[in-house]
Amino acid sequence: MPDLILHDYAFSANCYKIRLAASLLGLTLKDRVEYDVLKGETRTPEYLSKVNANGRIPVLQIGDDTFLPESGAACHYLADGTDLIPTDRLQHAQVLQWMFFEQYSFEPYAGTLRFWLAKKGIETLTAEQKESIPEKRKQGEAALAIMDDHLSTRKFFVADKLTVADVALYAYAHVSPQGGFDLSKFPNVQAWCERITQQPGYIALD
Amino acid sequence: MPDLILHDYAFSANCYKIRLAASLLGLTLKDRVEYDVLKGETRTPEYLSKVNANGRIPVLQIGDDTFLPESGAACHYLADGTDLIPTDRLQHAQVLQWMFFEQYSFEPYAGTLRFWLAKKGIETLTAEQKESIPEKRKQGEAALAIMDDHLSTRKFFVADKLTVADVALYAYAHVSPQGGFDLSKFPNVQAWCERITQQPGYIALD
User: What is the pLDDT of residues A81-111, one digit of tens each?
Assistant: First the structure.
């Protein structure tokens, strides 16, 4: 494995996915380069030209010259060939199913509300942003309900063992109360979150 | 390969990704089951309990009892072990990078505007929806600009050959003019779209 450097924002649970996946796999990140997204540090000309043209964080740097954006892609790179990605064709696709679900149907709601309420502060939001909170709450709760129902008969999301799908979903689920979500409504999600913390190599979001 | 049934909505370019991937791979879908999302046919109790708890389309049914939601996961299932998914660890992750980019940074803008303007009709939109059009236009154009720049030195998105990343990005890119995007501003995207149509097994969105 080449040297790994994480272009990082400590608060971001998308960034945490990569730190958690690496730790669960026993991999050491050589460095973490911290950016303050509130100060626009991922939108500078240098960042856009060198690290990620999409201006987003995280990016996993692999060796000197390879930059891999998208948390799900970076987790897949780290976990490829390990127990965190099933070799079975259908199970591999199901892992990706939940990772796409997370990015499309959960993170835009749970992640945005956490960022707004726990980082920016509700007093900084525009009128439109404030008005959008109930709909984001509804969508985030709908995603948590789907996760809770799925976990009613399973210990983990796919193949009844820990995979990168769990890593991806855990990141924003376990801190969703910071965005105003009540996890006591989703007891299977709560129990699964507890289960994740008991995995060898688990690290908390710092 | 078990029998494949696509739970489908003909207008949806997310559904088209699966039809296109199957055709490029020479796979035959045994059946297409059509749903009218405007009539709520993917939100019925039966659909939610049997096909997809998330109430979304497409879903790839594999055999009698396995239902795989998320277009990217379904494309990965179909293409696993074929030339459309590189075996190289980094290239495989880069394919997923662009598929996550598509779902997070492109489809929510290009897909929504196409659905609103070409299917629902602008006269049916709420005031909030109409007000959100300029921002969605800006975000969609930003994604097209990133794609255009990436394609300035490449024929395809990853590994200089056709992969499921191209299938995923092509779906909404080639019909983005239906959502009011001007592809003449993105000549590398235009040339790449033309290149896709020349691939053996290509089928148009019907």
Answer: 999 999 999 999 999 999 999 999 999 999 9
Mean pLDDT of B7-30: 98
pLDDT (0 to 100) of residue A206: 80
In this prediction the ipTM stands at 0.97
Architecture of domain A4-79: 3-Layer(aba) Sandwich (3.40)
Q: Are the folds of A4-79 and A89-197 the same?
A: no
Tell me the domain boundaries of chain B: 4-79, 89-197
Asked if the C-beta of A70 comes within 8 angstroms of chain B's C-beta atoms, the answer is: yes
User: Mind giving me the DSSP string for chain B?
Assistant: ---EEEEE-TT-HHHHHHHHHHHHTT---SEEEE--GGGTTTSSHHIIIII-TT--S-EEEETTTEEEESHHHHHHHHHTTSTTS-SSHHHHHHHHHHHHHIIIIIIIIIIHHHIIIIII-GGGS-HHHHHHHHHHHHHHHHHHHHHHHHGGG-SSSBTTB--HHHHHHHHHHTTGGGGT--GGG-HHHHHHHHHHHTSTT-----
- Mean pLDDT estimate for chain A: 97
Q: Which of A27, A68, A92, A100 would you mutate first to test chain B, the one with the most B CBs within 10 A?
A: A100
Is B73 in contact with A90 (Cβ distance < 8 A)? no
Q: Residue B206's pLDDT is what? A: 80
Report the percent of chain B where pLDDT is more than 90: 99
Topology of the domain comprising B89-197:
Glutathione S-transferase Yfyf (Class Pi); Chain A, domain 2 (1.20.1050)
Any B CB within 8 A of A121 CB: no
Q: Scanning every residue of chain A, which has its alpha carbon at the shortest distance from the alpha carbon of B58?
A: A97
Find, in chain A, the residue whose alpha carbon is nearest to that of B75: A93
Q: Read off the pLDDT band of B195 (50, 70, 90).
A: very high
**Nearest neighbour of A89 by CB, restricted to B80, B97, B150:** B80
Residue of B nearest to A66 (CA): B90
- Tell me the average pLDDT across B111-122: 97
